Amino acid sequence: QGQLVESGGGLVQAGASLRLSCTAFGRTFSNYVMSWFRQAPGKEREFVAAISWYPSTTYYADSVKGRFTISRDNAKNTVYLQMNSLIPEDTAVYYCAAASRPFERSIAVTSDQYGYWGQGTQVTVSS
Prior knowledge:
Distance between the termini: 40 Å
Order of helices and strands: EEEEEEEEEEE
Shape: globular
Largest sheet: 7 strands, mixed
Strand content: over 45%
Radius of gyration: 14 Å
Oligomer: single chain
């Protein structure tokens, strides 16, 4: 069925950068919309960024626009989230997700439209 594995999280100071990776195993997701979500303690999971499969179009939450960049390398079956100028409000568990079906033309920002999820990676930004 395929598995998504995130990596790259950690503890950093405000203003620092991190790059998260999400690698797929067991199947290819090159024809799927891929997204990053995050969930802070006591809060609901929220959309962060997404990238389409055709040719790569990106979409960002307002809170990260201009600071985060999503990209994908289909040859490596990997999606990245480059996070710059991190602030304490970015502290959360970050999840990689793939759309429930391939060849979706629209980019969904709600988690119920995604059928494949990674286990999450913790990002902590200290002030």
